[in-house]
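thought: user wants a sequence for this fold. calling inverse folding tool.
action: design(structure=
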């Protein structure tokens, strides 16, 4: 009844090109139910809840909008349970509904890995398990930074359920940044599979792609692999034809030569013989079946434009041999969790981080709303994807880092300047102390200078006065010099007149004898002229002589060497006398 109701109510359209519901979907539903261990789902309510989970995974996960999802999830499935198992309705309809077999799986060897497909109950019970497995996966060469918000955990469970099925292949449809490749990588590790994907290089073509597929098939006989193939890997549309062949028949036709086939099947020849594959064709078919069982293809495609619709039409195996998981835009809580995860290392205060996170979420949601209005008004689509939100966060972090680096540089400069100013301030204080001491010295020296200046001024005034006096004295001396000159001239004239008398007196001295001296000495009252002459001679010999005849008579005339003294002074005194 559910299958028929879905077929009638969810019809195929150009946008919903993959709304093809057939017996494959029913087989996938019951194949999923067969994953459970017999002892885990014994009563009816557990079986009904298991059926609801598988119906959601097969029919609801591929739907493209919330309206279609609500038809199946909130109408058809609840009504089917209520009609058939009303007593189980409440238990079966409890949310969230998460079922997987990785909660108890820790053995890295898939052959020895004990896995129990069970109800995980809620997000909180499974999140620590996933975080531990993410830590185990991360290494220096691979760092998976996956934010485990509720919707991400749901997609992990869905993709893990798909690839754990035998020959389970997934088609993940969503816009860039929705986490498809990260979830595919993580679920592959959780499932215990090896990872394989291609790396496009310059001139990478179909020949190189075929060689990589050969390498993959050589490993598939030993261990299970997950093969991620995205729309960015479609360097040539022929790649999709090869993928379509792998999905539908398990091998690319004419991929191996006969000689290569022999080398590939040789390691499993004994194993195949135990299964009854003895002939060459049976051995090759066994090889293909083993590779198909160990290969789980995960296609990651974007729904933008008509490309996916055209590819699915040209290569039907992309739809018919995969289980679709459609990724919707992240809800508000998921956006908040992602923003918090990316901003947790940023140096913000907790209240600042909360405000920034709210603002980022508001901007992204409002942009989605405006893009819808833009499409309705102008009939042109501007897709706002989770990648836009991640780019928004990355841009913000980059700008924040650059601005903080700039601010740190400025702070460092200001700190350096401040330290310089503080150092200059300390040096200024020291210099001020030294300056105070020097000012005291300067004051003392200035006082001394002032004293010296006063002294100099006093002496200058004295010198000026002396100069003035000297000038006046010079004038007086000039007058006196003039007078002296006149007197000298007059004296020279008198001397000239007296010279004959002097010369005559010198001559007469030669004629003078001691008897003449005695005669003069004996005179008591000599003539006046004679007394004056004797007095003058006594004055010449003794400048301190008393001008008295008796004194002259007693001193000079009594000298027995008088003539000798007069004659010896003749030449010496002559000039002085002159």
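)
observation: tool returned 578 residues.
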């Amino acid at each position: 009844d559910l299958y028929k109701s879905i077929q009638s109510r969810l019809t195929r359209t150009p946008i919903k090109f993959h709304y093809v519901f057939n017996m494959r979907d029913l087989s996938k539903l019951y194949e999923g139910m067969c994953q459970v261990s017999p002892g885990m789902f014994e009563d009816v309510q557990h079986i009904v809840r298991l059926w609801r989970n598988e119906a959601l995974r097969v029919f609801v996960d591929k739907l493209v909008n919330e309206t279609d999802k609500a038809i199946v999830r909130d109408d058809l499935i609840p009504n089917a349970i209520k009609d058939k198992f009303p007593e189980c309705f409440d238990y079966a309809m409890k949310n969230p509904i998460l079922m997987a077999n990785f909660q108890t799986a820790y053995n890295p060897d898939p052959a020895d890995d004990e896995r129990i497909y069970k109800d995980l109950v809620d997000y909180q019970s499974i999140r620590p398990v996933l975080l531990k497995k993410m830590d185990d996966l991360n290494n220096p060469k691979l760092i998976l930074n996956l934010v485990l918000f509720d919707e991400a955990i749901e997609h992990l469970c869905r993709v893990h359920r798909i690839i754990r099925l035998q020959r389970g292949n997934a088609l993940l449809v969503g816009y860039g940044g929705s986490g498809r490749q990260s979830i595919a990588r993580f679920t592959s590790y959780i499932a215990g599979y090896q990872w394989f994907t291609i790396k496009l290089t310059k001139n990478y073509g179909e020949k190189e792609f075929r060689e990589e597929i050969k390498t993959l098939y050589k490993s598939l006989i030993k261990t299970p692999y997950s093969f991620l193939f995205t729309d960015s890997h479609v360097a040539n549309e022929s790649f999709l034809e090869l993928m379509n062949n792998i999905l539908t028949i398990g091998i690319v036709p004419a991929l191996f030569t006969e000689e290569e086939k022999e080398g590939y099947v040789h390691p499993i020849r004994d194993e195949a013989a135990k299964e009854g594959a003895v002939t060459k064709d049976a051995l090759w078919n066994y090889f293909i079946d083993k590779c198909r069982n160990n290969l789980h293809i995960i296609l990651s495609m974007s729904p933008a434009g008509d490309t996916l619709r055209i590819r699915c039409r040209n290569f039907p195996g992309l739809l018919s041999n995969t289980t679709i998981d459609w990724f919707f835009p992240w809800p508000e809580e998921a956006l908040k969790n992602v923003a918090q995860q990316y901003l947790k290392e940023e140096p913000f205060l907790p209240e600042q981080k909360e405000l920034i996170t709210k603002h980022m979420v508001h901007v992204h949601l409002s942009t989605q709303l405006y893009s819808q209005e833009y499409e309705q008004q102008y009939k042109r689509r501007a897709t706002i994807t989770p990648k836009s939100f991640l780019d928004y966060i990355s841009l913000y972090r980059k700008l924040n880092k650059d601005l903080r680096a700039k601010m740190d540089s400025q702070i460092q400069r200001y700190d350096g300047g401040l330290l310089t100013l503080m150092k200059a301030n300390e040096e200024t204080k020291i210099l001020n102390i030294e300056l105070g001491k020097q000012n005291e010295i300067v004051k003392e020296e200035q006082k001394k200078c002032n004293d010296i200046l006063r002294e100099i001024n006093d002496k200058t005034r004295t010198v000026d006065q002396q100069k003035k006096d000297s000038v006046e004295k010079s004038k007086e001396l000039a007058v006196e010099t003039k007078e002296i000159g006149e007197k000298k001239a007059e004296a020279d004239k008198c001397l000239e007149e007296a010279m004959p008398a002097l010369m005559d007196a010198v001559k007469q001295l030669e004629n003078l004898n001691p008897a003449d001296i005695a005669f003069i000495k004996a005179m008591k009252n000599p003539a006046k002229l004679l007394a004056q002459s004797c007095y003058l001679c006594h004055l010449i010999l003794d400048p301190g002589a008393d001008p008295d005849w008796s004194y002259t008579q007693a001193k000079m005339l009594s000298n027995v060497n008088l003539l000798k003294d007069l004659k010896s002074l003749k030449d010496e005194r002559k000039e002085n006398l002159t």
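thought: summarizing for user.
answer: Here is the designed sequence. Strands lie at 99-100, 118-119, 170-173, 194-197, 225-230, 295-301, 323-326.
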